[in-house]
Structure formats: C-alpha cells, structure tokens
Amino acid sequence: MPQTKMQKIKSGIAVDIDETLSGTAEYWFRQMAKLFGNPEKLSVKKLITKYRYTYNVPYWQTGGALAWLEQQRHSNDLQKILPLIKNSNHYLNKINKILPIAVYLTTRPDTIVRGTKFWLDKHNFPKAPIIAKPLSWKENSNLWKAKTLTKLYPQIIGIIDDNPELVDYLSVNYKGTIFLYDNKSKKRPPLKIICAKTWPILYKKIVTQKLTKAS
Fold first, then answer.
1. Where do the CATH 3.40.50.1000 domains begin and end in the chain?
2. DSSP state of 54
3. Could you give the CA distance from residue 161 to residue 77 in angstroms, rounded to a whole number?
4. For residue range 154-197, what is the model confidence (pLDDT) as tens digits?
5. Average pLDDT rounded to a whole number, residues 32-37
6. Closest by Cα among 133, 151, 171, 191 to 180
7. Which pLDDT score is estimated for 53?
8. Strand order in the sheet with 101-109
9. Where does the pLDDT of residue 33 fall: very low under 50, low under 70, confident under 90, or very high at 90 and above?
10. How far is CA 209 from the centre of its chain?
11. How many CB atoms lie within 10 A of CB 199?
C-alpha cells in the first residue's frame, strides 16, 4: 500500500461494505435467480440464508453466469443503486462518535471506487477513504484484505466485517479486534472476534468494549 495513502488515513477502525453496509447479496441473488434460474424455487431471502454468497450456489457456477457477475462487479453505475442494509448508516454514524471510522476496506475492485463513494455519500455514511482490492491481485480476496488490515495495524485497530472467512486468513499474531456482523459465532484463538447478528447488538458490543483509536 502506498505510503501517501497511509498518511491520509486517521486512526480508528476499518469497515467493510458489501453485506455489512450494502445489501449487495440481495441484489445479486434476485438478478441471478431471474437470469440464470432458481430450480429450488426458493425465495431470495431463503436463497441467501442457505448459500449466503453467490459463489456457493452450485447452479450459478456456469460460464455465462460468472461472466455476467464479473461484468456487473466492475460497473460504477450499479454500485450507486445497491440496497442499503436497514439503519446501517445510522448505527455507523453513532459508532463514529465513539470510535472513528477511519477507512472503508473492501474487496470490491478498485475500478469502482467512484460508484462506491457516491453510494456512501448518498446514504450519509461517515466520510473516510476507500481502500479497494487492486485489479492486479489474483489470489483470494480475503487474503488481500487480511494482509492489508495487518499492514494498517495499529493505526487501524480492527474491522467491522460480515465475512468469517477473513478471520481464517489473518495471522494468529494479529492484535486488532474483528467485529463480525450478521454472525452468531466464530472462534480462532487467540484472535479477538466479537460476533453480532444485528446492527443494534453490534453497536452495544462496541460501546461495551470501550475501544479507543490507536495512539
């Protein structure tokens, strides 16, 4: 990560976007069921409950479906219309008052930062830089995020994220706190992992932790 970008980031916590702030899966599942089939005849909500991410849906792993998904992932216009996870903006602003939102750390490709910023501003999220995954990165996306999060510590003291796979890629020596939204349980000692199914619960747990920005 360029040193100039590091210098622009204040101390505080990182926040993921997809499935943490944005209901991206809701959009993907709805569109892909319409375009590529839903042989199980499940509702969008039940599809998400069963598979969580589109890459877990076996009948959407075709060349055509994957090509369509990849094309959409690089659309700035699409990012502007993605649904908001209800009240995620309000709770993140409340968190920002006690623990600064220092950066949005996303595995979205860096080609759609413009559309992502538009969406964050549209929903009045706290202002902070966006670090997105470079197109040159060809390995696992959560490995990139784990490496980036590690480099940012102790300036960034942890992250609010929804994907438990991120934890699996972090070194056991990582000293930050991982708040896993929309998760009931995830353990990987000695990592500090705090799970919360909803934003109100997550907010209360952050208040209880009494975290402060890194010095």
1. 3-22+84-209
2. G
3. 24
4. 999 999 999 999 999 999 999 999 999 999 999 999 999 999 99
5. 96
6. 191
7. 87
8. 130-133, 101-109, 12-15, 156-161, 177-181, 192-196
9. very high
10. 21
11. 23
Helix (H, G, I), strand (E, B) or coil at 198: coil
Determine the Cα–Cα distance for residues 33 and 39; give it in Å rounded to an integer. 9
Q: Just give the CATH number of 3-22+84-209.
A: 3.40.50.1000
Output the six-digit token pair for 80: 């502007």
What pTM was estimated for this model as a whole?
0.90
**Which contiguous run of DSSP H or E holds residue 202?**
helix 199-209
| Contact (CB, 8 A) for 168 and 142 | yes
Beta carbons within 10 angstroms of residue 59's beta carbon: 12
Q: Is 169 left (phi over 0), alpha (psi -120 to 50) or beta?
A: alpha
Query: Which amino acid, residue 116?
Result: T
